[in-house]
Structures are given as C-alpha cells and as structure tokens.
Amino acid sequence: MTDLAPALHPRIREVTERIRARSSDSRSDYLQRMAAARSEGPQRGVHGCTNLAHGFAAAGVDQQALKRKPWPNVAIVSAYNDMLSAHQPFERYPALIKAAVREVGAVAQFAGGVPAMCDGITQGTEAMELSLFSRDVIAMSTGIALSHGMFDAALCLGVCDKIVPGLFIGALAFGHLPVVFVPAGPMTTGLPNSEKSRIRNLYAEGKATREQLLEAESASYHEAGTCTFYGTANSNQMLMEVMGLHLPGAAFINPGTPLRDALTRAAAQQAARITALGEQYLPMAELIDERAIVNGIVGLLATGGSTNHTLHLVAMAHAAGVQINWDDFSELSDVVPLLARIYPNGTADVNQFHAAGGMAFLTRELLQAGLLHGDIATVTGRGLTAYTQEPWLSPEGLAWRPAQAVSGDLDILRPVSTPFSADGGLKLLQGNLGRAVIKVSAVKPEHRVVEAPALVFDDQAQVLAAFKQGLLERDVVVVVRSQGPRANGMPELHKLTPALSVLQSRGHHVALVTDGRMSGASGTVPAAIHVSPESLAGGPLARVRDGDVLRLDATRGLLQALVNEADWAARELAPAVTLGKQHGSGRELFGLFRQNVTDAESGARSCLP
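Request: output the structure for the sequence above.
Response:
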C-alpha cells in the first residue's frame, strides 16, 4: 500500500463489498462468457480464408500485415460527425491512429461509426424522446462494429451524453478485448457561464430578445470541442479517468493541440501493447469490476457531476455483471466531499477546472483520503496512482509529471481538508411519491426543503405557457409527469431551468418533481427527478392533483404528498396523456424500446440484457 493509498474509507469498503455480494452470480457469469470468447493468437485467426480476405481487401498498405504477420489489429469505433462540435475533431483521428500503431508493430482499421445525438440541439423538441434510447442504439452499433472477429483491441472515440455510456456498454459485450477510450477535449472558453445564465433568465422574463439570446449562446458554444459546462459529456470524461480507461489526464486537453495529438497517438499505441498477443494482456472485462464502478460514483459525487449517471452508470455496471442502485449512490454521497465547483454548480468551466489542477489533483486528493480504490487495474498497466500525474510535452515528447501541490484556484477546486461541502450533494428521496434522486450541490441550503401546493402538467411546454401567463407566481411544486422511459423515452426538461430559477429569485418557494430527467445541467432549483415507478407504470405521480400539498425535503430524503392516507390510496390514476405521441421525429421507430424499457433505477435499459 503506497502513501497515496491509505486505508480505504469504511463506507467505501462497505458499499463495495455489498455490491460485490449482490453481483456474485451475474459477475461470475459475465467473466465466464468473456473467458470463452478469448482466442489463441490473433482474433482474425478463427476465420476461413474467404472471410479473412473480405476483412483485409481494402486495407492497402496494411494488407500484408493482416494476411501474414501475427500483428494485433486495433478497431476504431468512432462517433465522428462534423455537425456536433464535440465529435468534429475525431475526423483526424483515424489517420493519426493508423500511423501510430504501425510504429509499434500493429495495424488499425476503422471498424464502424456510431450515432452521436446532441441534447443541446434537440432540447425541448420531440427528438429529445429518442435521446435516452440512443444510448442503447450506440451500444448495439458498437457491437456490430466489433462483431467481425478481426480485432485484438479497440479504441472508442466518443464524448457526449449517451455516446460514452453506449460505447462502454457495447465494448463490454466484447470485454475479452482491451479497450481504450479516446476523447476529443473541450472547446476553449467562450462567454462566461454567469453571463450566459443571466441572458437566459432575462429571455425567460421577456427582457431580452431572441437575437440577444442567440448572440450569447453563439459566444458560449463557439468552436470545435465539447461544451465547457460540467454536464453529462464532461462527467463522462471524468468517469473514464477514475475508472482507468483513459490515459491519465486525457479528459480536458483542448482539440487540435500538439498535446491532444500526442495523447491520441499514445492511446493507440497502448491499446496495441495490451492485447492477448503481448506480455501485458488487459481485457476490459477485468478492468471494469465493482471497484471501478464505485470509483466512478465517487468521482461523480466529488465533482457534482451529471444526474444522468444515476441512469447510465447503473446500465454500464449491469453490462459488466455488476449490480448497483440508488441506495449505493446516496450512501456514498454521505461521505464523499464536494471538491469542485464547475458550472452549473459554480461559474467556472472545465478549462478553468483543468487549469486549477484538474483530474490529477482531484484523483490524488481522493486517493489520499481513502475514497478511491487505488488498486484497480487500468489501461496504463498500473493502478490509479498513475492518474495523479498530468500529461505534458517535454523536450523528449509526451511525458507525465506529478499533479500540482496546491489548487490553482480554491474557488474552483479544493483539497479534501477544506471541501465546498462535506457530502457529494446527490441524495435519494423516498416517500409516498416513489423513489427519486436530487442533486443539491448547487442548491442553497435555504431552498432544500419545499412544502407547497402542486400544479400538475403533462409536458414542459405546458409549464412554460403557465409561467408566461403568470400562473406560477407563488410558492409551488411543479409536477411534470408522463415523462418516464416507458411513456416517451424520458426526455430532459432542461428548458424549465430558466423559468423556475426566475420564480425562485423572486422569493417564491419552488421545486420540480418529475419522472423525467433534468440532465447534467441540474442547477439551483431543487428537482426530484427520475421518480420511480413512473406514472405510466402506475407510479404515485399519477395520483397527484392540483392543490395537493407536496413536501420535498432534501435534508431528510423525503418526497411526500401530504394527503390523507386512505384518500391517497383510493384515488384513480390519471391517464398518461403522452402515451399517444409515438410518431414524428423518428419516434415511431422506437416502439419496441418503449415497450421493453426498465425503470429508471434499473438504468432505463431497453433492448439490452
């Protein structure tokens, strides 16, 4: 045990052991399947001559290597498209990767592309009802890309909300292969987040024009790279580091820089080195276990990351045979301190977080406090202590150096000794309204308990219309139901944030309760989200009526309708009005997903096991 890995915190050990015991059968079954899939020699060696000839017919200069030499073949699975800023930089990666692996005696082929859907574009539109399901489509697309049996390792190129979880789930179906995740990095800093938020609120109040709003948004989202706020996309990148699937420090290096290109080349070469054909075989199935999953949850809590991962991490873990639930998140949150304030939990962006010390500083602090499993296997071939170093370009080329000793900005990143909060700010809420999650890391203490009459809506457009009519100018718990995965694919309700923030700023006690999602942009208004069971499945939200007094208590973990128990039980369920909206924007293609999807706490898995 090194000085960076003191005794594990008792709560971390307790939750990890409980997950291990709960997952014993499913984990064993998964590992047996992965062991059976391993091949002696190159994976393509199982093919007959006709099959193999099809596999390298277009390989050009690599054709002879694939035909005669026992070189590893690295699959490239990419979410590239040139419409989405986060994925546009991937256009250059295949050429970089192919040249890099040849230097270490390997070849690479572009195995397949996966769709990349942007919630920033589809937010508030019908297309958002496909967003969550796109994760499972990406997982299946990854499976198709890797199904050809030509590959000894894989590189997964993806960044945003559903893309990384989908790639992760799909790659685990081929967990006998080593897999390295390769990011593109955030765009450089644009309009400050505080100013962007101010213009959004003014627009919601009718005090700014559409032209002014568009100008502000364009100044914020202004070039290639990931959006710089700390939503699901950047939470994904944090996760890949604390789970050991990135090269250390790869998450937040800007696109198109020499350091970013050097990390991409190094990731490709490392994937080639850790195949079953070499001396250090590191299959993904063995890297992703209950310890790695707990590390992911801890990282999420310590940074105030996206609430979407109370869905995605559950599904990702399930794909590795690891069973987690919201109790695990909540119990870990009690002991994991909040060490970062990045918008929407603060005003800084991920570039400023990175400059303040970033992932290397954060990982070192959590390891020294016994809050991370330092002994996990990683794609580096070393434990998590390798991730306490940051990459840089030395005179000799790419190198790593220790994280800076102190935070570069204590308003953004802090040590464990002086956290922003003693807990991670992600809570489980329970009561006669069901089970839900709430992120309170950006919610002021005086707003964490709300008791007020309910107003019930069936979609966010109705809420915004009521806001514009002045019907919400009071203490209110806004209930938006029929937004769960079975009803309409569980869209994010991000467009409600400015309106509800305005109401709260006017002195009203305001909360949101919904079986939908609020996304990585969950902010200053208390929001009980992912309420399970959802209303379409007979969940209690279908019993709520206008005027019912509801209590959201994030301090005690309560979500209750203060209604006479007998009256509550006798109420009929309101109809799920969104159930009929199953066409337009491609929604008619996803009927099978809606029919088969699990509940939110089970990861909202649709066509996946």
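The two ends are 37 Å apart (CA to CA).
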